[in-house]
Amino acid sequence: MIQQKQFGVWMDTENATIVTKENTEAGAVVIVAHTAGGSVAHNSSEKNENNEKRTQQAKYFKEIATHLQNATFLHVTGTGQVQEQFIHYLAATPQFKNLKTEESTSNKMSDEKLISFFGEKLF
Is residue 102 within a helix (H) or strand (E), and if so which, with residue range? Predict the structure, then answer.
């Protein structure tokens, strides 16, 4: 049987929590990392500010992706549209081209509720 590497990410534009299912029979969901996105200082040039936001978002997405080594399944949840942007980022990244993804929308949760939430989503 092929070993599934399943992950879950709760994210908004500023913070992300990455979880995975341990490779045990019980398959406990555990938190892998907490990641913070950088903030962008206001800039008098709208073009420069937009470029800075794009650069910061790419760094944020890349940081999250470093925790998804050999992932075969990913469920992304959170507020706003950043989850969809992150899924598009992963789809454009060669190492994640075969990654199966799902997304949903949810409010911020405590770590305990997040583990419970992903316990139902990861198989």
Answer: strand 100-103
What would the pLDDT profile of 79-114 be if each residue is shown by its tens digit?
A: 888 999 999 999 999 999 899 999 998 898 899 999
pTM listed for this prediction? 0.86
Report which of 100, 97, 96, 120 is spatially closest to residue 109, judged by C-alpha positions: 120
* Closest C-alpha among 97, 94, 12 to residue 60: 12
| Token duo for residue 10 | 């709760």
**Taking each helix axis from N to C terminus, what angle separates 82-91 and 46-65, rounded to the nearest 10 degrees?**
70
What pLDDT, on the 0 to 100 scale, is given for residue 122? 75
- Length of the chain, please? 123
DSSP 8-state assignment for residue 23: S
Could you tell me the end-to-end alpha-carbon distance of the chain, in angstroms, rounded to an integer? 14
Structural fold of domain 6-121:
Nucleotidyltransferase; domain 5 (3.30.420)
Strand partners, 100: 73
